[in-house]
Write a structure and sequence with these properties.
By secondary structure, the protein is an alpha/beta fold. About 30% of the residues lie in helices and about 20% in strands. The protein is built from 18 helices and 21 strands. It has helices at about 30-35, 45-55, 75-85, 95, 115-125, 200-210, 220-225, 275-305, 320-330, 345-360, 380-385, 400-410, 440-455, 470-475, 520-530, 550-560, 580-595, 600-610, and strands at about 5-10, 15-20, 25-30, 65-70, 110, 130-135, 160-170, 175-185, 240, 245, 310-315, 335, 395-400, 415-420, 435, 460-465, 485-490, 505-510, 535-540, 565-570, 570-575. A 9-stranded mixed β-sheet has the order 13-21-20-14-15-19-16-18-17, sandwiched between helices. A 5-stranded mixed β-sheet has the order 3-2-1-4-5. Helix 6 (about 200-210) runs antiparallel to helix 8 (about 275-305) and helix 8 packs parallel to helix 9. The protein is globular, with a radius of gyration of 24 Å. The two termini are about 30 Å apart.
């Protein structure tokens, strides 16, 4: 029987990605940013397509179906505009010349679906449940005129409105929309500025933009919120009343000092700003308001559907504090969150829509992990580690027991870069592209933030813990295999793992099951055998402002630019020589000059090799 290949794409705007299904099961997937090394990268999807095709050994013509989405506009409309208007937001200049060579540009065979429908399929179609409710909440979705699925009477909206929230029920492969909430267009200087629109995700992004100078830094808002406090001169700024979302259009006059990254010499940095207290309190306010609003929505969804299972997707689903409250404080018996809940996961949803709704195939897969990246072979690893000039300043050994050797290094206080198998598709490092350290020392947290991750000191680190021991160290709650649920650390254990305890006594934990990741589970067990603690600090393998590493060479470059002590790639253990530190600055300058290559040339190479001439 012929193998069936279905490709799903998130195109043009931020977080471009591709996922390839083989007979209904995710075979490989990647976000464009992991290849180009440009955070949240947008534009053409061809390098992500090429990555998937190369991994599967296919050409573009071998695909049975392509399904695609972008939230900005319906894709046919956007692609028409790209021919006649300058859309710098959607297509970088060095990619514009390639659009006519891309087989998916204005391709009439590709199926286009709307944004929240793709999010919904990314959740229910790979969830462990045969039936349940679906909750999709994000910053902004498709225009009403472009929405693919039937909308309940009374929720039709204006054609120019944008999706803000969508709620569904599913049984098997059948999905039914039970409610839509819309973002009415609000006049602003920039009409496309969704953060001024009255929606849950939009308002949260507005706070991220105000405090951190970027709408997509919502994770930082969530991390800063526990440092803030309620105050009488900052009333609620969003909520749900009589079933409708409301938001404050105007903030108090004292909120007039947004953070703007200026780069002016002598200007105070973010952490030393005199307005830090106000920013903390604003984050506290919006986090509390969002949690309460989502709880109200989830409770209403349970009343309407009567389902015992809930699945969640959309950018707001990355708010693990809110997810934890939904799991604990609603009548849903089971809650499952898509690990690539943001727009990277749109490609999964598009692919699954093609499989189930277009090709009418049954559901075949439960997404226990999101390790969808390609596994890099030994010769590629060895080639990366032999790269000049780094090869002269590192030493490499092979380990016969990686878990035991690395556990000893971690117990000795070493900070370890850890690359195993295929990369995670979503934004959480779950044990394949991780930086690991000992949770027993608060100094380890400070060192990770200041000298490895190069990020703000307030940001917490997540614990990875074996599923068997999680209830001994954290208060009871649902499993959290994708680091998307928060639990409180047990009071009798907090002093033993201070590096992973946030200021409010909680932790965004990852529960590790041997069935899902035998090597990472073995590492945790080996560390417990030495220290008595089945927990490790697990943070993403990257530095601030850069995507998570994808290749062995990416990992090596991150390793040499930071103060990590040990790099582990499969069974290779890599350490720096004693001559490395005084030479580092010179070596980095040499490397960057030698390897300067534009994204445009990478795109051209991909189109030529894997997609078409």
């Amino acid at each position: 029987m012929k193998t069936r290949w279905v490709l799903g794409l998130n195109k043009y705007d931020h977080d471009v990605s591709a996922v390839l299904l083989k007979d209904g099961v995710p075979f490989v997937g990647v976000a464009k940013e992991r290849i180009t090394r440009v955070k949240y990268d947008g534009g053409l999807a061809d390098v992500a397509i090429g990555y998937c095709l190369k991994t599967a050994g296919l050409r573009f013509d071998d695909l049975d179906l392509v399904v695609q989405n972008t939230y900005a506009l319906a894709i046919p409309e956007l692609e028409h505009d790209l021919l006649t208007r300058t859309h710098g937001l959607h297509l970088p200049d060095d990619e514009r010349e390639l659009i006519h060579r891309s087989p998916l540009f204005r391709n009439p065979k590709a199926v286009n679906i709307s944004h929240h429908l793709a999010h919904a399929y990314s959740a229910f179609a790979v969830s462990p449940f045969d039936e349940g409710a679906v909750m999709v909440v994000d910053g902004i979705g498709s225009h009403r005129r472009d929405v693919s699925e039937p909308v309940p009477p009374g929720d039709e909206g204006h054609p120019a409105d944008r999706e803000s929230e969508s709620y569904y029920a599913f049984r098997g492969t059948e999905l039914t929309c039970v409610r839509k909430a819309w973002l009415p267009v609000v006049p602003t200087i920039l009409n496309g500025d969704f953060t001024k629109m009255p929606g849950l995700g939009a308002m949260y992004s507005r706070v991220a933009e105000y405090v951190f100078d970027h709408w997509n830094k919502c994770g930082e808002v969530m991390g800063l919120a526990p440092f803030g406090h309620a105050r009488a001169d900052l009333p609620p700024i969003l909520g749900v009343k009589d079933g409708q979302v409301w938001t404050q259009r105007w903030w108090p006059d004292w909120l007039s000092h947004p953070w703007v990254e200026t780069g002016i010499p002598g200007a105070p940095d973010w952490q030393s700003s005199p307005h830090l207290r106000d920013w903390q309190d604003l984050c506290f306010r919006v986090q509390q308001d969002l949690e309460d609003a989502l709880l109200e929505r989830a409770r209403e969804l349970h009343r309407v559907t009567g389902m015992k299972n809930l699945v969640i997707a959309g950018g707001v689903a990355l708010n693990c504090v809110a997810n934890g409250r939904i799991a604990r404080e609603t009548l849903f018996e089971n809650v499952w969150v898509q690990p690539a809940a943001g727009d990277t996961g749109i490609s999964i949803g598009c692919a699954m829509y093609g499989e189930l709704a277009v090709l009418k195939q049954p559901r075949r897969h439960v997404m226990r992990t999101d390790f969808l990246g390609r596994t890099h072979p030994d010769d590629e690893i060895d080639e990366a580690l032999a790269e000049a000039p780094w090869n002269r300043f590192i030493s490499v050994t092979r380990s016969s027991d990686v878990a035991a050797d690395v556990a000893r290094a971690l117990a000795d206080g070493k900070v370890v870069g850890w690359l195993q198998g295929g990369a995670e598709l979503g934004p959480r490092a779950l044990g394949h592209r991780s930086i690991l350290s000992d949770p027993r020392s608060i100094a380890a947290k400070e060192r990770l933030n200041a000298r490895v991750k190069h990020r703000q000191a307030f940001r917490p680190f997540a614990p990875a813990v074996t599923i068997e021991k999680v209830d001994e160290w954290f208060e009871k709650g649902p499993p959290s295999p994708h680091m998307l649920m928060v639990r409180r650390v047990r009071s009798d254990r907090a002093a033993q793992i201070p590096a992973v305890v946030h200021v409010d006594g909680t932790a965004r934990l990852q529960t590790v099951d041997r069935a899902d990741d035998p090597l990472f589970h073995s590492l945790l067990c080996a560390f417990e055998g030495i220290t008595g603690v089945p927990v490790l600090v697990n943070t993403s393998f990257n530095v601030r402002g850069e995507p998570i590493v994808e290749t062995p060479l990416d990992a090596l470059l991150c390793f040499v630019q930071t103060d990590m002590d040990l790099l582990v790639i499969h069974d290779r253990l890599v350490v720096k020589s004693r001559f490395f530190q005084p030479m580092r600055r010179f070596l980095l300058e040499y490397w960057r000059a030698k390897n300067a290559e534009s994204v445009g040339s990478l795109m051209k190479s991909t189109v030529r090799r894997y997609v078409g001439n």
